[in-house]
Amino acid sequence: MKVTLNLPNGPLTLEVPDAGAGKGTIKGGHPLYYVAKQPRATENYLTQINSLLEDLPKGLDVFELCGGIGLVPAAVWDTIMPSSWTSVDIDPDCRKNYIAHGPHFVLGDMYEVRNFPKADLVICDFPNNTLPKMWREPKRAELFRKIATMKPRWWEVTDVGYYWIHLANHWPIYQEKFGVQVTRQNYANLFDCFMRDNYGYKVTKMTVGGGAQYFLMEAV
User: Fold this and answer.
1) CB 127: neighbour CB atoms within 10 A?
2) Which residues of the chain have pLDDT under 70?
3) Which of 36, 39, 121, 124 is least surrounded by Cβ atoms within 10 Å, i.e. has the fewest?
4) What is the residue range of 161's domain?
């Protein structure tokens, strides 16, 4: 079936396989499954990313980790008009269904890529990233240290924790780390403090919608 996403730079139409549990269908977790099941949320998510990046200069070299099927470059290409875009993803099915035409797709595990390309902007639009994962998972922490060492001028990080912190069972995790009660009102400040203290980057812009909060950062 065809799904049309109405985005700031114009409509984006995708050919999406059936989503379900049967043979030959796409399963939950696949980017196209999300497009098929929640097209309006997908629009919102991509619109928020576009808004986050719209003030950046044109002609940047972009490095995207966990790039999926290319939804982000397809949505923001005309906004930032990059000079180059390298996208890494571990799923061969994402390369098979890749929709963006400009990026160079690298099939591989983002945790095992040895040589990151020089980039002005690094995009970490991970579907499962939360602030606690960034300090509790050694692989995630090491990846972020490697990115910080690259010293990109801008760094985007997506965080889905914003939509879960109203649940009381999440509070002790943040209380132990930061010594304060986490709320949606102070979440961005905690994120900013964590990135400053651990990686030398500060939040300069953020947007919220489509299931996550999106942070754009520059070096302190």
Assistant:
1) 14
2) 18-28
3) 39
4) 2-219
pLDDT in tens, 69-110: 999 999 999 999 999 999 999 999 899 999 999 999 999 999
Start-to-end CA distance of the chain, whole Å, equals 46
Could you give the 3-state DSSP secondary structure of residue 111?
coil
SS (H, E, C) 153-215: CEEEEEECHHHCCCCHHHHHHHHHHHCCCCCCCCHHHHHHHHHHHHHCEEEEEEEEECCEEEE
Tokens 């470059």 appear where? 73
Q: Where are the beta strands (DSSP E) in 17-168?
A: 61-65, 84-89, 104-107, 121-124, 154-159
Tokens encoding 124:
């970490």
Running DSSP on this structure, what letter comes out for residue 133?
H
Q: What are the tens digits of pLDDT across the range 2-18?
A: 999 999 999 999 988 76
Q: Which of 82, 85, 96 is nearest to 31 (CA)?
A: 96
Buried b (16+ CB within 10 A) or exposed e, 139-156: ebeebbeebbeeebebbb
CB 217 within 8 Å of CB 157: yes
With a threshold of 0.90, does the pTM exceed it? yes
Instruction: Give me the residue label for tokens 């269908």.
Output: 25
The enclosing domain of 117 has a CATH number of: 3.40.50.150
Which tokens go with 167? 């649940």
State the total domains in the chain: 1
